[in-house]
Amino acid sequence: MRNWNDDPYTKKARKENFEARSVYKLEEIDKRERIFSGVKTVLDLGAAPGSWTQYCLKKLPKTDSKIIAVDISPIQVQDPRLIFLQESIESVDLSPYVGDGKVDMVLSDMAPKTSGVHDRDVYLSFELASLAFHTCEKHLKMGGAFVVKLFMGESFEEFHKLLKANFSQVRLLRPDSTRKHSREIFFIGKGFKTKK
Q1: Mean pLDDT of 36-41
Q2: Which domains does the chain have, with CATH numbers?
């Protein structure tokens, strides 16, 4: 069995003091799509172990910015701009933290604990991606951006159609740092269209 500690992205993350190699997926998405342009408030779902949160803090303005991170597992990241809620996304009430306004971007790197049963894992991934989208419906501002992970499977087209109906632009990306055996793909939605 391969030792993932030999993985070049894992080594790079350790060297650059990021909590996980997944930071390079978000970095590539950002480089290609410039998702942080004009962004001051971010909602980071499934934040643990915290590398996406770290990247957000690096990209957001030093003042007048905020990131709200949510996960049932703890993260070690600390910053005055960070509000971390150790709760499940199903039960957390984000309203007191988002305030009267809306967030500029919602990120979701949430993934189920994989069982090896393809259909089950794909279904659970779709459920988490759908939860992330429903969070957008409540808390993402008009024109805002959404980045979400989904496992490839029969729910792919359904989710793609959902995003195309609610964002002015939808891109798909499989970052170079994605493990070769992984079925994950990222959807990037820009220009959120709020319901009339």
Answers
A1: 96
A2: 4-192 (3.40.50.150)
Q: For residues 7 and 21, is the Cβ–Cβ distance under 8 A?
A: yes
The total number of residues shown for the chain amounts to 196
Contacts made by residues 157-162, CB under 8 angstroms, sequence distance 24+: 158/126, 159/126, 159/129, 159/130, 159/133, 159/187, 160/187, 162/133
Q: Which residue in 149, 161, 180, 196 is the catalytic one? A: 149
Its pTM stands at 0.90
Q: How far apart are CA 50 and CA 27, in angstroms?
A: 14
Bond preceding residue 49 cis, omega within 30 of 0: yes
Specify the pLDDT at position 6. 66
Contact 29, 186 (CB under 8 A): yes
Burial 33-64 (b: 16+ CB within 10 A, else e): bebbeebbbbbbbbbbbbbbbbbbbebbeeee
149 is catalytic: yes
